[in-house]
Design brief:
Largest sheet: none
Number of strands: 0
Structural class: mainly alpha
Number of helices: 6
Shape: flat
Helix content: 55-70%
Radius of gyration: 34 Å
Order of helices and strands: HHHHHH
């Protein structure tokens, strides 16, 4: 009962401050103040203020047990042991290289349906370079001057933007 009264008083004071702020024609700030002012009464009406008190008492009794009961300290020791074992397991897995080699293999393989970067056409019409051929022997696609440009790259639109800005 006292909690509800205190929450209602807090909300009334907050709404009064919001009204005074709106009187000064600061409507956005007044709206935010009114929203915050309604929180205490909303918590009291929904029962969450009482729940907060119960949580506070539970945390307080746990803290008292933490100091006074050795079983709580033993529980922390068990949790610390579990964390140490977890770290050792992760380190051992990383040293074996099994997970790392699988990740590298997956990263090296391109997705089956994903086109290669710079590809401009469907997969059937793209020309694959010969293993020993260089990019200098083939003409670059597009109007770009493209020093070392790949066949599917066209930088003409980017060059136009740069020239427009004097770069």
């Amino acid at each position: 009962m006292l909690t509800t009264t205190v929450c209602a008083a807090l909300s009334a004071a907050g709404l009064a401050i919001a009204f005074l702020t709106a009187w000064r024609r600061r409507f956005a700030a007044a709206t935010r103040l009114a929203a915050v002012a309604l929180v205490p009464v909303g918590l009291a009406m929904s029962g969450l203020a009482g729940l907060g008190g119960k949580i506070g008492r539970a945390v307080g009794s746990w803290a008292a047990d933490l100091v006074l009961k050795p079983t709580v300290w033993a529980g922390f020791a068990v949790l610390a042991c579990a964390v140490v074992l977890w770290i050792i397991g992760r380190a051992a897995g990383a040293r074996s290289g099994s997970a790392a080699s699988r990740r590298e293999t997956r990263a090296a393989e391109p997705a089956a349906g994903a086109p290669a970067l710079g590809a401009s056409g469907p997969p059937a019409t793209r020309q694959q370079p010969a293993p020993g051929a260089s990019a200098a022997g083939r003409p670059a696609a597009g109007k770009g001057k493209g020093k070392g440009a790949e066949p599917g790259e066209d930088f003409s639109d980017i060059e136009a933007i740069l020239k427009k800005h004097g770069i």
